[in-house]
Structure formats: C-alpha cells, structure tokens
Amino acid sequence: MNTTTDRIAHVLPGFIHDSRATLAANFVVTAAAVLAMLFLLGGYLALPTLPVFGHDEVHYYVDFHFKLVEDGRWLNYLLHDFLRSLPLPIWSLLYVGLWWALMYRIARGCGFDVAYAALTASAIVMASPFLEMSLWPASVVPSLLLIGLAIAMQAHGVAYPVIYMVSGMLMFGAMQSMYFLLPLLFLREFLDTAGPLRARWWLLFRHMLWWVAGSVAGVVVVCLMLVLLAGIWFPQPPEWRNTQPVESLASLLSNIAYVAQNLAIHLETLLRQGGVTYGFMLVCIIAALLRARTLLLQAPALLLLVAVLLSFFAFSVPLAPVIHLRSLFAMATVVILGLAILPGHTAFGRVLGALLLLKLVHHYSVYGQDYLDVQRTETSVLLTDLRELVPGYPTAYSALALEGAMDPSKPEARRFNDGSLMHPIFVSLGVWDFLDCKIPQRCDRVGETGEPIAVRPFAGGQFELAVDAANNIGVVRYRE
C-alpha cells in the first residue's frame, strides 16, 4: 500500500505540471485563434462593399467567349449566366467562407485540434494571394466547390486516383491553379510516422503519378471543350500574358530560369507581407533543428509540400507567362501550413506555432485593409466624377466611348490609361457597351460629335462629355 502511495506521489507532480502546461497552451492557442479570426474579419470587411471588383470579373461582360478562348475555362464559361445572376457581394462572402472551411478541413486533416486548425485556416485565407484574388469571387467559387467535391469523394471512400482524375478534368475548366492544392487533402497519411517509411515513400510516388495524370486529363478535356465551344484546339493567351513557348533547349532553359526567378520574387514578397523578419526565420530554423529527427521521419510529407509549392511554377515552364502573386494559392498554403506543422504537437510547440501564425495573420490583415482601400478609393473617385459628368441615365446612350490619355506620372493614370481597368467602372455606371478608343478600330463606329455638353475637372485636367447624335454614342474625353 505504501509502495503504491509512494508511486502516486512520485508521478503526480509531473502529471500536474503536464496538465498545467497543456491548459496554458490551450488557452494561448484558443486566444490566438479568436484574434486571428478577428484579423480575418477586419482584413476582408471592406470586400462586400467595394463599388468595383476585378476588371474582368464575369459581371462586367455579357459575352464571356473571349475568356474561354484565352484561358480555356470552359466550366466557368458554361456557368457564366448563373454566376452573373447573383450579386458580387454575395459571391465575396461565399469566397471567404468557403476558403476558410476548406483550409480548416485540410488543417484538421493534419491532426490539428479545433483551435489550432481555425488559427491555421485564418492565416492561410488572409495571405496576400487569397486577398488579391478576392476581387474575382464569382470566378473562383466554382473551383472551391470542386475542391469540396473532392473532399466529399474522399470522405465516402473513393480511391485517390479517381479523385485526381475527376478533379483534374473539372477543375482545369475553372481555375486551374486550384487543382495544385489537391494533394494536401491526403497529407495526414504522410505525416503519420507509425507506418513504415518505405511504404510512405511508395505511396507518395503513386500520389504524384496520379496527380500529374489528373492534370494531363484536365488539359485534354480543355482542348476537347475548346473544339466543341470555340472551334479551336488550344487556348490562345492574350498579348499581356507575354508567353514564351518552348521551342528549343535554349528556350527551355531560359523559361526555367524565368520561372525560378519568379518563384524567388513571389516567395520573398509573400514572406515580407506577412511580417517575416530574420528573427522570425531564426526561430523557425531552431525549431526545425530541435525536431530534426521527427521531420526526417516525415520526409515524404515534407516532399509532398514542396511539390505542391512548386507545382504552379513547374506548370508555367512550357509557356513562361506573366505570373501574378494572386495565382499562387498553393505556394501560400504550403508556406503557412508548413509553418503550422513545424513546431510539433507538444504544449510548447503549439504555443510557438500559434504565436508565429498570429504574427502572419496580423500583417496580412493590415495589408488586406490597405489593398482593398486602394481598390475602393481609386474606383470610387472615378465613379463619382463620371456620374457627375454623364447627366440623366447613362443607359440612354447606345454606347459610351473613352478617349484621351493621362500623364503617367499622375496617380490616377495607372487605372485611367488602362482600358481593361476602366471597363468595369463604365459598366458600374450602367453602360454595357464600353468603347476603349485606345484600341485600334474599337471606335470606328463613333462619328462626329458636337461641343461638349458637360465638363468636370479631374486630375489637373478635365473630363468632357460630347455626343455623336447620329449614332447615339456618348464620348468621354480627358484633356490636360
């Protein structure tokens, strides 16, 4: 009896100590998760109230055939009328909500508890690529629903080769960059170190094989749908994408160097916008060294993360187009998810991970507020002045044309001198036929106009509204 009592007395202090550490860690992680969700709310708060969203969002074009030809997004093309039937503020709420739910599901799949998964999901969804792409919510939501379909198939026991093939054939018809996230649904199978390491390496090889096969199937379906819907075999990227097709070994090496340079630039930007400093990186390196043995056992999972991070860039090598940060969902997700995994599941590790993630989500939230504020301010100023310029109902004109150019040194010039950015502003005025006279032959049907019927000062010059009465076309000119 005394021996048993002595054993309990010996073990109890350690048990109490461990329990206190766990409770303290739970408190810190829960508090961090609540703060992260508040930062997420603050970062996206202005999104549903924006007067103008992304310049080529579906709501600004009655005919979306040009996007089908340029990008091969046949599914979005078929859904075009439906996507336009719901207001953009509703799509924006769905965008943020669905992203968060999907990332929470992936985080839970990594073995995180509820609070830590919520914190991780908030940090990912607040990252700059997700924030920047939020200006195109209606275009992205179909792909989010397809990821949800993949999760549903996984939950019902569908074999992973089928999930990759079905998802590839559908997702390449919407937002192709979303397909590269798919292996993350299976990450837990590689993080579990209980099974033989060799078996996990073999499983990783099979996943990578079917992942690539799914992307090939997606490209094939895109080509077939383009034949059916547009009479062409391959997408025809617009000039602004500045594509550089591989034609020789030299061009291949050049494209690889270009893509690698973009990887370095965008990765540095993503980290900088998240407030990552040298001290932050030093902490991560120390954590990795302390957990080196476990991380080596999880090598297949780490390689899967690296493959997902590099996937969009590898897919870009054949054409080497302009690469925007807003397309790099996979890169941002892997960086933040990897950071969440790095410290481990101990009480100290969870606290360290929570603090690192909280720093990220706070900085991304500040960036997000500034980014959306710029979008709101620039578009609101132009909308206000153009509404004052065009008297009565803009829809009274059969079309509105835009002439003139602004000094590039003026802050208003970036948006005004780009017809693609002015197009949604004119549509938001209520005019569906917008003519950008900077594009050759776009304004051929505009005839003679009389004296300006309205003038409004703007950016050191003035807007003038004249009318081609014969064709009932309003012409907005800017003069210095």
What do these coordinates show?
The protein is mainly α. 63% of the residues lie in helices and 6% in strands. Strands 2-1-5-4-3 form a 5-stranded mixed beta sheet, with helices on one face. Strand 4 (461-468) and strand 5 (473-479) form a beta hairpin. Helix 6 runs parallel beside helix 17 and helix 17 (347-389) packs across helix 19. The longest helix has 43 residues, at 2-44.
State which percent range the strand residues make up: 5-15%
Radius of gyration: 26 Å
Helix run count: 19
Strand order of the largest sheet: 2-1-5-4-3
Could you say which structural class the secondary elements and strand pairing correspond to? mainly alpha
Shape: globular
Residue windows where pLDDT falls under 50 for at least 5 positions:
8-16
What can be said about the biggest beta sheet?
Answer: 5 strands, mixed
Q: How many DSSP E strands? A: 5
The rounded distance between the terminal residues' Cα atoms is 98 Å
Estimate the mean pLDDT confidence: 88
